[in-house]
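Help! Submission page says 'invalid entity' but I think these are all valid:
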Amino acid sequence: MRLDQACFNEHLASPPFQDGVARGYWDIAPRDDVEWPYVITWIDLPAKANSPDKLLLRFNLQDYPSKGPTAVPWNFEKNVKLEFAKWPKGLGDVAKMFRDWEGAMALYAPWDRFTVEKHDANWIKNYPGFEWNASRTIVHYLRLTREILHSDDYHGC
Amino acid sequence: MKNKIHVHIGGQNEVCGFELAENETVGSLIKRLCKEGHLGEFKPEEWSVCVEDSDEELAHDCRLEHGKHHRIHICRCKKVAVNVIFNGATKTHSFPPGTTLRKVIEWARDKFGVDKKEKLVLRLGSTESEPLDPDSHVGSYVRHPHCEVTFYLTPKVKIEG
């Protein structure tokens, strides 16, 4: 097993990730045809009319954790990127994070590798404490994303 | 798994899951945790237990039930003095160790008169350190006999660009 995958598996077994599982906040959603460095996880969503109760995200975890994760909303049944019309909608941070930017390849968030790499080096300095570093785990990404989805900014999918 | 409870331990930022034994009491769980090395070298009677976000301390002869006690905090501090600094001003309150930071944020929001729409986070050490997990407990940030902690309250940075 590759070192990045072994490290990720260790983080999945760690108390912070498992505590989120126990609270019903998130978990992985394995598929046989999804292989490393890709991993699908879900985050629970607040109840909204005509909206799912979970958001599936497909992560690219290449070189984890020295490089940060990047994720995109995912259609688990079809194993393809979620149609943009079905991405979470709302105001404020929800509207910013789930928008069609650079081809809707990732969440527009300072903890997402794709988004950070598409900006100049000064952009991330606007978000002290939110940035990825090698001492963080996947819980950093999941927790910050979930907090935004569980705010009044979220209106449904 | 239906008898599993989640135990936050004072001074530690991790949560452990334990299966409740039949007729498990607070006292027997503490003895078990001591025996298994989770609580260091302290005596069982030194520890107190409360339910997450509850003001009530559980007696050592209290029988633990998954439905009522599925997430508890075990700590040698019976109360935690929490200082919250916001815009240079400090407010202090004594909380049970099992109080979540989410509850502390709402208390601080009220004390500092911050608009309900403003999203807030607590940080340790400085206003630029990592935002803390709002589901963590105040007791996880103190080590007996120093039952006091200082947090910085800051607006959550809005995503721009």
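Support: the input was valid. A stray whitespace character was the problem, and the output above is from the cleaned input. The first strand of chain B starts at residue 4 and ends at 9.
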